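> example.struct
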């Protein structure tokens, strides 16, 4: 890997020198070693945690292993990646990663907590191309011939898995080798990220229960708090806190502006993938948002732009429609112009994010990586 060197387990990066190298190729090279470092940290941490729980009772070992598998079952490690570049942007290219790696990896445990419980709330059957945690546990319950409803048991245990992952995130975060006062500031940023995630999740649930009274503005607010905050903005600020930067600085202002823009664009891309994505690539069924009538910005924009006849048809979304009707509704949403409008909103936010980086006083390699991430995270197919 021409632009990366891994020495003593620490990720170190140097800027790309060839103008012919596409940003995304450079980004992929950098991210590959970072993801490996995060995954190795998680695997070592979780092995010890699973063993400790197995000592309580043999059944706990199976429970903990299911939680571990939920964490290690793939994923793009987006949040650790943004945290890493937020940190690297401040400290430059020579600082060793090892002291802050536990904190960066902890964000993936927090993400697993959110995913597992979100899948229960949404009754999702698959995640990353595999059965979701509650579906897996329900199947184990049924195979063992235990009493009670397997589905209910699976959901109950999945909530506990999510809770355990949040606790594990706290425990791993505490292992960051940074001064105590700095770790306290990091923790404040981390706690704010968690509060905003819960706020966004509540608004998301509320919107599904009252879609007729929801709006595009409120859908974008959900995107801001459920996704932008804990996917991009707060991880970047979390990384900056790990670097020891003061809160009232141009870097924090730039990261905040960039993070909100890319985070919202990330969710808007998710809205499109939820309807038009290839299940083989996304790992989730296509059209679920139309089956449930979820008031995403995409569907709400389609209703605003639709003709009266189109709007009457769109009202069927969420009424237990079948696969053929989902395809028809997806085409109708595109016909209203909503897809094109969402693509414009994504492009506008990416432009806003890149403008935020223009004058940001950050490391040059981090600027290159964040530029690539703004595009890669918002033009993805999964």
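> example.seq
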């Amino acid at each position: 890997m021409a632009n990366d060197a891994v020495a003593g387990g620490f990720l170190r990066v140097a800027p790309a020198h060839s103008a012919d190298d596409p940003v995304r190729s450079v980004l992929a090279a950098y991210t590959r070693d970072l993801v490996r470092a995060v995954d190795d940290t998680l695997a070592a941490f979780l092995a010890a945690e699973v063993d400790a729980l197995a000592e309580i009772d043999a059944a706990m070992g199976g429970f903990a292993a299911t939680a571990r598998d939920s964490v290690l079952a793939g994923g793009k490690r987006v949040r650790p990646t943004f945290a890493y570049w937020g940190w690297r942007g401040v400290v430059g290219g020579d600082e060793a990663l090892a002291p802050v790696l536990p904190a960066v990896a902890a964000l993936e445990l927090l993400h697993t907590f959110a995913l597992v419980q979100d899948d229960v709330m949404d009754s999702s059957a698959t995640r990353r191309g595999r059965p979701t945690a509650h579906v897996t546990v329900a199947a184990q319950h049924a195979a063992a011939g235990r009493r009670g409803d397997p589905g209910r048991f699976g959901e109950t245990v999945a909530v506990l898995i999510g809770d355990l992952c949040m606790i594990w995130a706290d425990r791993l975060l505490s292992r960051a080798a940074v001064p105590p006062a700095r770790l306290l500031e990091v923790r404040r940023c981390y706690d704010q990220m968690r509060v905003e995630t819960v706020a966004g999740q509540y608004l998301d649930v509320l919107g599904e229960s009252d879609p007729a009274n929801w709006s595009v503005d409120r859908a974008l607010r959900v995107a801001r708090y459920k996704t932008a905050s804990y996917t991009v903005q707060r991880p970047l600020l979390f990384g900056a806190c790990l670097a020891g930067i003061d809160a009232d600085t141009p870097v924090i202002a730039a990261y905040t502006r960039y993070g909100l823009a890319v985070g919202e664009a990330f969710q808007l891309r998710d809205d499109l993938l939820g309807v038009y994505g290839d299940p083989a690539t996304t790992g989730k069924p296509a059209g679920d948002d139309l089956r449930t009538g979820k008031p995403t910005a995409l569907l709400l924009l389609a209703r605003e732009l639709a003709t009266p006849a189109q709007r009457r048809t769109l009202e069927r979304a969420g009424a237990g429609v079948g696969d053929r009707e989902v395809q028809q509704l997806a085409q109708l949403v595109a016909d209203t112009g909503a897809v094109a409008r969402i693509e414009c909103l994504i492009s506008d936010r990416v432009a806003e994010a890149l403008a935020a980086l223009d004058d940001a006083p950050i490391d040059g390699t981090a600027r290159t990586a964040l530029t690539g991430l703004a595009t890669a995270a918002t033009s993805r197919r999964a």
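> remarks
The chain has one domain: 4-376.
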